[in-house]
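Re-run with default settings, no changes from the original entry. Doing this only to confirm the output is reproducible before filing.
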Amino acid sequence: TFVNAELKLPNSSIVNDIPLDWLDYKKWNLIELTSSYMMLLIKCLGEGEGGLLLHCISGWDRTPLFTSLLRLSLWADGATHQNLDAREILYLTIAYDWMLFGHQLEDRLSKQEDVFL
């Protein structure tokens, strides 16, 4: 995984309570990046005082990936979309978080590129 974007986090208890060395983020592999960012996003939603704006500058796959994972996590916890079953939430996630976002999912899949790995 190549990360060239600078990570700027506020000096807050939400960030400081997560037992990670955020200065090492450029060395993290995709699994470490994803789990660390998800930990931060979920903590911000749970303990923060406002909403959450998610924008990833390191590629077209990251923003819909984190948006989808966050939506699925909230659904699994019963916090949102409670009237949807597993098939429906998956359809909503792919249609809304990927297709309507403007991700070139169909093009990438037609070229047999890995998107969901």
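The chain is about 50% helix and 0% strand. The CA atoms of residues 81 and 88 lie 10 Å apart.
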